[in-house]
């Protein structure tokens, strides 16, 4: 019979005191941390808000979105308590926008509908009688897939989704909910932060769900794509060892030289992807795999190369559990603010939106999920300068010909 001995290190671990909180202490804690914000009644607006502005509107499924120049802007007086009006400066084009536009999910969006579910802008009005708003006029905020939750109907994340069931971010002015708009860390550039609101949180959450620990191997399929290049950086920032799976020399360079992946498997050149990935992870296979492509083959391969009890996570689309909650959104942005993750993107003119929304062009041009900003409402000089600067940096990064999200 073996004798169970207490390992020596146990005595070194400080004892954690577990006790119920003292009620008075707890009340003090609540008073400090949960006190209502000082502005219990808010000023509706100090901004000059036009009656109409631009919006890219889905009018018919499977058709181009219609660019309206005089779409009605909700009047501040019409905002309900808890609603706010956001003047958008950047909005993203995401693969899910195509699914909404083509009605691929069997959730018929109410048309006409302003598309888009990533956007950053400024709060320019807050509904009258809004109490305890966590945001105030002038705050920079992000709008993401989940527009709000009514706490009644919400197991399905499409029922209050920007650009899917409520008017989204492809507009100069968008209605948001003060409790749901996402504060953006000060140090973050609006354009760089916009794709994090969907693509970034999708992969951040996927990696968290993989339960991989520091030093574990994680394989990322589609590592050089719009989702994948963010996944590689988040994984590296979380202390994971990355095996990047994709194809082509430019993607290899991107993944290994720029993003911090340790191993590279080119799925086109490899004679046996399963064997190569297993070997890249020391012969036992990776602890986790994140699939950032919309194609069945990598799933089957991952089932074969993952080590025993390994975890397979798909970030196929953002419906369901793959999008993160508000806490995770804050975490994902903080990691970007720390400079550990940088999204590669291109800033485009407002009227180019259809080029990226049309399914074929979207794939051919490699404008992937969250990989592109379609608009800029700032002065055009600034836009031109920005474009030159950004395109220089990212020209190679998005030269994608594979069928990635
Ligand atoms: Zn998206
Ligand atoms: Zn609901």
UniProtKB/TrEMBL annotation:
Pfam family, one: ADH_N
Stored SUPFAM superfamilies: GroES-like, NAD(P)-binding Rossmann-fold domains
Protein name: alcohol dehydrogenase
Residue intervals of the Enoyl reductase (ER) domain: 65-367
The keyword NAD is assigned to this record: yes
GO-annotated molecular function: alcohol dehydrogenase (NAD+) activity; metal ion binding
Keywords annotated in UniProt: Metal-binding, NAD, Oxidoreductase, Zinc
Family: Belongs to the zinc-containing alcohol dehydrogenase family.
Cofactor(s) of this protein: Zn(2+)
EC code: 1.1.1.1
GO CC entries: cytoplasm
InterPro entries the record matches: ADH-like_C, ADH-like_N, ER, GroES-like_sf, NAD(P)-bd_dom_sf
Origin organism lineage: Eukaryota, Fungi, Dikarya, Basidiomycota, Agaricomycotina
């Amino acid at each position: 019979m073996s004798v169970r001995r207490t390992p020596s290190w146990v005595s070194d671990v400080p004892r954690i005191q577990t006790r119920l909180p003292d009620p008075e202490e707890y009340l003090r804690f609540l008073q400090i941390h949960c006190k209502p914000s000082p502005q219990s009644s808010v000023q509706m607006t100090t901004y000059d808000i036009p009656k109409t502005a631009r919006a890219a509107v889905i009018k018919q499924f499977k058709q181009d979105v219609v660019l309206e120049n005089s779409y009605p802007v909700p009047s501040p007086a019409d905002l309900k308590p808890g609603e706010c009006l956001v003047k958008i400066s950047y909005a993203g084009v995401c693969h899910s926008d195509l699914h909404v536009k083509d009605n691929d999910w069997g959730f018929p969006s109410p048309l006409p509908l302003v598309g888009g579910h990533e956007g950053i802008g400024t709060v320019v009005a807050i509904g009258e009688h809004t109490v305890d708003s966590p945001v105030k006029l002038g705050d920079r905020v992000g709008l993401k897939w989940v527009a709000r939750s009514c706490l009644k109907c919400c197991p399905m994340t499409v029922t209050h989704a920007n650009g899917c069931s409520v008017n989204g971010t492809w507009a100069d002015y968008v209605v948001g909910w003060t409790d749901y708009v996402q504060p953006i860390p000060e140090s973050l550039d609006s354009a760089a932060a916009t794709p994090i609101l969907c693509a970034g949180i999708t992969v951040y959450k996927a990696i968290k769900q993989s339960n991989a620990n520091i030093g574990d191997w994680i394989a990322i399929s589609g590592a050089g794509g719009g989702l994948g290049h963010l996944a590689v950086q988040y994984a590296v920032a979380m202390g994971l060892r990355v095996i990047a799976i994709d194809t082509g020399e430019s993607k290899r360079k991107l993944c290994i030289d720029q993003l911090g992946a340790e191993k590279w498997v080119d799925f086109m050149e490899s004679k046996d992807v399963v064997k190569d990935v297993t070997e890249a992870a020391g012969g036992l296979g990776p602890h986790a795999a994140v699939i950032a492509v919309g194609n069945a083959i990598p799933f089957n391969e991952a089932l074969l190369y993952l080590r025993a009890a390994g975890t397979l996570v798909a970030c196929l689309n953002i419906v369901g559990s793959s999008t993160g909650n508000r806490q995770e959104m804050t975490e994902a942005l903080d990691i970007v603010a720390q400079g550990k993750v940088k999204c590669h993107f291109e800033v485009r003119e407002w009227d180019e939106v259809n080029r990226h929304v049309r399914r074929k062009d979207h794939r051919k041009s490699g404008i992937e999920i969250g990989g592109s900003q379609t608009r800029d409402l700032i002065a055009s000089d600034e836009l031109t300068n920005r474009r030159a600067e950004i395109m220089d940096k990212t020209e190679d990064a998005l030269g994608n010909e594979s069928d990635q999200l």
